[in-house]
């Protein structure tokens, strides 16, 4: 272990505090505001994107290293996976039996 | 809460088990104390970060869980061996098929495969350990904590009883109010964290720690299948984590993710469960394919036929694995479009799998086949697995599946896939790599008994299920009437289960016999192997390789042997940097287990207090500046001389 890694991990601390803050904020928006359901979904959806960005930049070193291509590939496959899970789920659960009533 | 609600009472079978478990625990503690081995256990095993020892602990735990799950299976076959038997009541039968399924998949197949991966992968890529040795220890101990917590359910609190799939609404609080299904949600969550960490660990290990010169198309095939398996773990396990978290919230805190009240949807559980559950099938079967490939190539004395097509086939299976999950619930009433698309993707899986079968057959063709015990398992695997695969294509057709769905035909199908695909592979792998782990071979003659008893017993147990299934017997039926006419077939199946159990007993006896009497003089390369793990001593030394191997081609060790270039020069020896043991993984896992136990019983104050243990463990780990230790060239030389004789 070299001297560099003994430096105080400000990045991690800020990221940790920010991700907790965004979670609490989302809970607050969902429980304690009078927005319509769709507005709440939009707001916490935007918070979720901030959360993902914090994870990528503060913890997952997305800007570090020479392996830009690998990072791009990884993020690409994660996005495809997320799309399969989200849209697959919506499709499967809303067609057929659910559609009938 | 009264004594009655805490301990499971009123069943003589369970009372006997409780006494047996109590006595075994007391006996073990007494034995270790008598032999004065506590310090040794702590230093050599409990705190170890050595991938080989962690692998051996995984295998040990897997064999133990195989016994537990096997007894569950035997009880089921005994209960249905005659019509209207009263050996088990309906509730007890429900609990037993639930624990049988969970234990066999998550606590038997997974640890046995991950155990062999742990022992073999770093050796095959010429590395000194995995990328994160301490995380690896944490993976094992979290798995172990989860497995023990799950097993506790059958003596304390009551077992989960909603099937290994735990479908809602049955698995919800409304229909199963006891703590049984809390065990399912919490114990699998804890073990799942460990598995996810293993996946990450092996992805990084295989990307970053390959020996110099080992480019991607020079990787041994088992390394490839492990790599792709690890990627599927990283992709699929978080889905299960989320689903289990929702389940826990529903059961412990009264949310409504999966209950119809307040707009939840029970089908969402099925959907998420199988989004993980189907890739999980490939997580257990792909490493097994890799092991068979290694064993077949070694004992046919040929290089693997169609290496590249094998790699592409595995990658193709991995990609398709994320696109087939709905075939587990065609009958939920989807639209025709959904069922048609998923039928199509499911049948497409048969294409890369077929490629692999033909690759193995062509590897065997004109080979100089040596019928060692591990090769026998590989040879028996091909026809048995093909039966499982072909019936899988039958089940893949959505329209026809309305007939087969949830019948014994399905049960027969997945046992024909998983037992040849995973269990035979683990047996083949154990016989093959045993000398590398322990420095002696398992006995071949007892191995023959093990093989024939198990394979004949397996076919006898599960073949009749195809027929009673087609005749309308649904799965999970705890009894049936004489007039169904199933009694002869199910009786046969019960006899088969006993023969299988005898096969397992033969394996245990083989381990005991070989441990006591087998020759310790096996050399580094007892099978005339092809890959790097055979280039070092048996058992492999803690530093794996005295000098980092240089790789030039596929099956490098095989070619080096032919050229006589396997020697070691004294001048090449350099100081080796090793990671130190650590107490944090086992302590963290114990804390996780205790918190989990309190959560199962919904004792939240105690759970919060106990979770301080987890935080303390994490903080202590963050301030651990241990930089490991070095093994100096003189020590390496002394160790290497033991099996090489003089160095060059």
Describe this structure in words.
By secondary structure, chain A is an all-alpha fold. Chain A has two domains: 1-64; 66-101. In chain A, 76% of the residues lie in helices and 0% in strands. Chain A is built from four helices and no strands. In chain A, helix 1 packs antiparallel against helix 2 (37-59). With 648 residues, chain B is mostly helical. Chain B folds into two domains: 1-36; 37-582 and 626-644, Cytochrome C Oxidase, Chain A. Chain B is built from 20 helices and two strands. Chain B has helices spanning 3-6, 12-34, 38-46, 51-79, 90-124, 133-152, 180-208, 221-253, 266-300, 307-321, 336-364, 373-396, 398-404, 408-438, 444-470, 487-517, 556-563, 584-600, 604-622, 633-644; strands at 576-578, 629-631. Chain B has a two-stranded antiparallel ribbon. The longest helix of chain B is centred in the N-terminal third of the chain and has 35 residues, at 90-124. Chain B is globular, with a radius of gyration of 25 Å. The model of chain B has no long low-confidence stretch (mean pLDDT 93). Classes of the chains: A mainly alpha (101), B mainly alpha (648). Chain A binds chain B through residues 1, 6, 77, 81, 84-85, 88-89, 91-93, 95-99, and chain B through 235, 239, 265, 267-268, 271-272, 275, 322-323, 325-326, 332-335, 337-338, 625, 627.
